[in-house]
């Protein structure tokens, strides 16, 4: 029984060794043939030159159904104002370069056939800066304009007598807020 296992193991080892040697010979033979083919193809490249023909580059153009937006950047406060608008007819079927030169002071920030965003920089503050102040016994909201001028935005019915001393001090100095929603939220806090 032991001899049978021993001879079986030797036969198995011999078969594995023959398979390995045969596969290496087959691989080397195919590798040399493919390497020779590559070398001959490389040598033939100089003989078979292909003429390169330039094709036209198709520019992406604005679709009639594209979205259009105007983005204003305010340099003094650093805020953006984005307004979506109807796509002007004169922009339809124009490429990015032509759209970029259409409006003075406006540059193309984003461009695709479905979206055009024009951007400009404006020196000054945006229209979303407000000051909540206590004047004449009432809380008033002012819109801060250029050159730090104030324009009355809203006068409330909230009087000084309903406020704490701390709130009165803060409101007499003025409370700067950004956005109409924030200004209305501040007013609700004092009601």
Written overview of the protein:
By secondary structure, the protein is of the alpha+beta class. The chain has three domains: 1-33; 67-122, Ubiquitin-like (UB roll) (Roll), CATH 3.10.20; 129-190, no CATH class. Helix content is 36%, strand content 29%. It is built from four helices and eight strands. It has helices at 2-45, 96-100, 165-173, 180-190; strands spanning 67-74, 80-85, 107-112, 115-122, 129-135, 138-144, 150-159, 175-178. The strands form two sheets. The protein has a four-stranded mixed β-sheet. A four-stranded antiparallel β-sheet has the order 7-6-5-8. β5 (129-135) and β6 (138-144) form a beta hairpin. The longest helix is centred in the first third of the chain and has 44 residues, at 2-45. The protein is elongated, with a radius of gyration of 39 Å. It starts with a helix and ends with a helix. The model has no long low-confidence stretch (mean pLDDT 78).
Concise account of the structure shown:
β1 and β2 (80-85) form a beta hairpin.
What attributes characterize this protein structure?
191 residues; Ubiquitin-like (UB roll); single chain; alpha+beta; 36% helix
